[in-house]
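Data card: per-record layout.
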Amino acid sequence: MTKVAIMKCGAQDELLRWYRGEQWPQPVYIALDVISGRLWADYDANVDGGCSPEVYHGFERHWEIPLLTGDAVNELLAQVATHAERVMAGAERVWDGSNTVIRLDTDAVAAVEDIADLLPRCDDRDAAGLLPVYDVDSIGEMWTAEEAGITGATTDEAIEATAQRLLAEFRDGSGEPDAVIDGLEDYLRCLRDASPSPC
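The structure for this 199-residue chain is written out next.
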């Protein structure tokens, strides 16, 4: 039987994608390729929903989860692995008259349900390992150009370094070591563009 191959998250905020103009970050899910055994987590790149042919025909199984830290997701992937192997063991390619699809036996169907049961619900605001995400607009103008050390001559490299420094200060002050401020660098660039360049 093919073993599950877990693809771990490499960063705490790896699953965070917040598109400009959207009210919330993109949904997050755990996925299993029932043929190859690849098990991973990802964000949904689609804004308007829908699913891929692989999901539609059952070759991939997705379970939506809240936006978690990379460490929390990696723990979940390890917990899912045993059940995922049951899904794979009971998966069979069949022709449905129009397409090749995946049919699951009784135990594989039960394993799919077991995975859903052990994962936190996507609307669970008390789930362990939630990634604290703040939109820079929602926390207000915390730093003026002077406080951030931004002038009209500040370079992009200095903007990046300043964003990292301010984020570290915010994390210390909030007591949230994994907090993310989405749009912080863009905010600092706006401060730069509004600041006069020194003569």
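Known properties of this structure: Helices lie at 53-56, 70-89, 106-118, 145-148, 156-174, 184-194. The mean pLDDT is 91.

See the next section for split statistics.
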